[in-house]
Structures are given as C-alpha cells and as structure tokens.
Please model this.
Amino acid sequence: MTSAPASASRDTLQAPSTGKRVATGSAPYNEILEFLYDEAALLDQRRYREWQKLLARDLAYTAPLRTTRQGPTRDQTVIRTTQHFDDDYGSINARLERLETKSAWAEDPPSRTRRLVTNVRAWEGAGTGELEVESYLLLTRSRYEYSELQHLSCVRYDRMRRLAAGGLQLARREIILDQSVVGMANLGVFL
Amino acid sequence: MLKKASSKLADGTRIEELIDIERREVSARVLSDPEVYRLELERIFAKAWLLLGHESEIPKAGDYVVRDMGEDQVIVTRDRAGKVNVLLNMCTHRGMRVAMDEAGCTQIHRCVYHGWAFRPDGSFIGAPIEREQMHGNIRPKEELGLRKARVQLYGGLIFATWNIEGPSLDEYVGDLKWYFDLLFCRTDSGLELLGPPQRFIVAANWKAAAEQSSSDGFHTITLHRSLMETGQYGSSQDDIYANAPAMYGIDLSCRQGHSLRCIPAEQTFAMFMTADDFKKLSPEERLERLPPPGISRELLPQLRRHMTPEGLALMAKAPPQVGGMFPNVLVAFIYNPRTDGGYSGALTLHTYVPRGPNHLEFTNFIFAEKDASEQMKRDMMANSVRATGTSGTIEQDDSDVWPHMSRNARGAIGRTQTLKYHALLGQKKPADWPAGGYVYDGFTKDDTQWNWWLYYRELMMADT
Model:
C-alpha cells in the first residue's frame, strides 16, 4: 500500500499527502465513497442547493488548465495561472442563483449527465479531521436530442473535513482535466 | 484557386450574392458550407491580420507558444535578437509538425521525423549527417527555413498575417485605432497576459461567434437575461425590456469591420442607474468614483499621462467595453462591479479559431495591467473566469446557442434562409465627438454587424 499518490511528486499534481492511507473497504473509506456517490447523484439530479450543503464556507474549487509539454518539461502540464474554474463558496452560490433564474439557457433545457466516480484513494490529511481524497471522474453529458455524448475525464483532489456533528464536508477540490482543449462548449456543469 | 472572373461556388452562386446588399441579409449557408469555408481560409485567414497572443508569454530568447492562423498552425517565437517571429509549424522537408507541444523554450526546433533543424527566427540550420548533405544541393539553406508570417506588435499583442505586401496593422485597424489605444496602450508597462488561454471546442461555424463579436449589443438583453434576473444589471425580472440595461450607448465601427461599444455605467448597473449624483459628476470625478474597467485608482495617474483629455473623458463617461476586431477577435474590457470589496473588472480577448465548417475553437486570453497590484490581478482573473470563457456565467449561454445556428444552416431549406440585419440606427456623432470611425449614438442596432459582413464580402470577393 503506497503512502501517497505515486505520481504526486510530479508538479503535474498537487502536493503529496504524507498522511496514513485510509484502507480500502474500511468504515472511514466507505464513508468517503458514500459522500462522493451521494454528491454525484445530487449533481446528476440537479439538486444544487442540497449539493451546496456539502460545501465548506471556505471552499476553494478550481480547475487548472492542462497543456502539452515535451522533453525536460514534459511533466509540467498543469497550469494554475489561468483556470477553467476559479471559485469559492460565494461564487458557487452566485452560479446557483443564476441557475435558478428563468433564463440560464446554457443548462435550460438541462443536460442529462452521469458522473462516473472511480479509483478512489484516501489519506489522512494534515489537519485534524481532514482527509485527502483522490478520485477519477468521467462525466458524460447529453444535450438536446443529439445522440452524441459529450465526455470529460479528470482526476479530482479533494480535501474533506469531518464535521463534529458527523458527516463530511468538501473544503477544497482541484480538478485536473485530461484535455488541453476542452471538448464541450462550456462548463455549465460542476465536476 | 479561383480567379476573379470565376468567383462562383459549385452551384453557380457568386460569392457576392451571399451578402444581399439591398435587403441587408446574409445567406444562412455561410454558417456551414464547406466550400465557403475553404475560400475563407484562403481569402480571410491567409490575408487578414490575426491575433495570436501577447509578448509577455515569450519573455526570453527561445521562448515559444504554438497558435493557429486559420487551420495553419504556427510557432510564435522570440529569437536571440529579441524579435518575435511567427513560423509555419510545418517542416520544409516533408511537412511534419515541428513544435510538438503548446509552449516551451529552445534555441533549436528539431523535427522529430528526419531531424531537420531550425532556429527560433525560422532559419534552417541543417539536416543530420552533415557530410551526406541530406538536404541536397538543389536549394541553398537560405531557402529551406520555416515559412514566416509578417508580424506586428500592438500594445504587446502579437498580430501576424500571411499578406506580406498588404496594409500595415495600423492601416488595418484603421479609424478605430484611436479607441483601441485607450484599451491596449494606456499604462507605463502595458497589458500583461495572466496565463495561457482557456481553449475549448464549440460545434459551430466560426462566424456564428465572430458576427456576434462585431458588437451585437441586442442579444444581451435576451440571451444574457439571467444577469438581469439576478439583479446584477439594472432591472428586475419584470422590467428588463422596459429598462433595457446596456442597450443605450455609442457604437463604433469602420470599413474594416472592427467595432466597439461605448457603454455608460449608468446605462447598465442598478447601483449607478438610480444614482442621480453619478450622472452629474465631471469626468475627473467619475474616474475616481468608478475607474474604467481594469484600472484602479492607483493607476489613474498613468492614464492621465498616456491619454489625451478627450480620451480620458471618454473612458470616464462611456469606455469602450465590448467589440471585436475583424475577423475573429472578441474584445471584452468590461465593468464587473463587485460588492465584496474585491477589485472589479475583467479584461479579456477571445479568438474564434476555425476548426472546419462546423466547429470553432474558443480561445480566451485574460489580461490585467502589468502595473496593477498582485491582489488586483488575482481578483480580475477570478472575475474573468467566472464571467467569460469555459465556465463563465455570461458566455456559457453564447456557446450553447451558436451550434444550433450551424445545424440549421445544413438543412436543404435552412441553408437557403437568410440572417437579417434590418435594424438601422444610422451614423450619428454626439456633439464634440473626439475621434473618427463610423459613430452610432443611441440604441444599439445592426449597423456594426452589417459593416462586418460588408468587409467579409469585400475580402471574399478579392482576387486571390
């Protein structure tokens, strides 16, 4: 069992977690998995205000650019100067307010989405009650009556926080896309 | 290649018939037609000045980024002499792509196929195994360099064209240069690109986006209605069409199809619409109360140094906020007031790169003034990402619309329909207007977009 994501030492990924691995199949691991599955279901069902309850007030929610590099810099493919999402709790709330208007056309009619969450690995975080969680996400998005499915694949690095009252909260999410040129017309959906 | 006399499409339609001057209508087929698209690559994208990036992306000798001029990919380099070069990313040997990545730094661009090598200025160094002279002796080395485009910088923005003998960039920007200077050349250190551009694909013809960028003000009030429903703009759900936020202002354009919309803040935002005192302020007082988009109070002394009093007054009252540069640049230097104490404003340029008759690549460049504080740059990046580009709450509605237009243009009947530009305002200059171009004072109408199509028609008819 590795103690950190094997590739995390590369600058393509976020700083390695030094914490103890949360064993697959253990009760805390299952709780993390349930959190991610429930979150995916809430987003797929567009139950945004319920999803918002999973978010910490100090949330950082970002999706760096991805780029193609060669040779000595070939692992420097994550760009955080510009991002696709650069959000906090307040700006996510503003996005939700927009989605609740009568004229948020980019998602009205809404996309039909599936968030397929896999390859979940977790470690104890640096702070008390914190967990570092890595998950793969494949988003499929069907718009209008067109049969082509749009897809987007990414890895997500989440920092979760155990609440005193029980349950988990999302405090930080960094979404590392695989595409340098995103293959869909917008990110009007959350990842 | 077509000759002028035979400038006809396969079905006999003459190019000029696609734009009906009398009726001010455009044939819908242009939003999907492969034959029209192929001609555009030759007559527009191989002729016009195209925006490729900003010199702040390639500060050191050897730095490069890979960009696109139509479907021709180019390497934008800085050479040892400090000069910016734009080179066709195609090995002169067998046509292989030379730079395989999107950015980097090297003094030698070596093709991975057979190893032909080139300097950042495009000149040919040689082929491997010098003693065997693998580039032959038919052409001297001087003739084997990468194909170079003509380059000109404007406020640090990198423009290039394949039209080596054509008009200069200044001539091309034409009468609107006076106004674009107010956006691009107004501080001591100029603009800084805050990072590489966002890039994403929209399943629409590039012109679906580009004709909108030619100052289609009118779409805002319906397509971007959500901004008004959430109260950001000055109206409530019930009085959007009555209040018409952001509709009144001064639209500008010119023969070359560029355009800008000068929009007073009190025509847009609730907080200024209702503030009677705001309208009475002098230009100087207005600058202090609401600096132009992307400018902080600390930067105002620089503006005063770089602008004429007339330019400064326009920036105070009705700064150019949105518009476009022909053929495929959108300008959005917008107020984006924040109520949480963060810096407001977003400075972005987009290019809509053609990717076949039915696709475009949306490229979103995000800027700040180089002399802005780090906090201001940070806030403006967030403002830009949240409002524009991939996830932007303004532009996600735009990119969802355009594909439907291209789809409709593919139908046997749909392609015979027309796009209408019937709403006329007519040129009208306010008293003491400080500069040139075609000036349209009033409710934003179709004039600037029609000028875009007229220049499109002019280039498409030009003998290649």
Notes: The longest helix of chain B spans residues 447-461. The interface with chain A takes residues 100-104, 194-203, 222-223, 225-227, 229-230, 237, 340, 361-362, 366, 381-382, 385-386, 389-393, 395-397, 399-403 of chain B (CB under 8 Å).
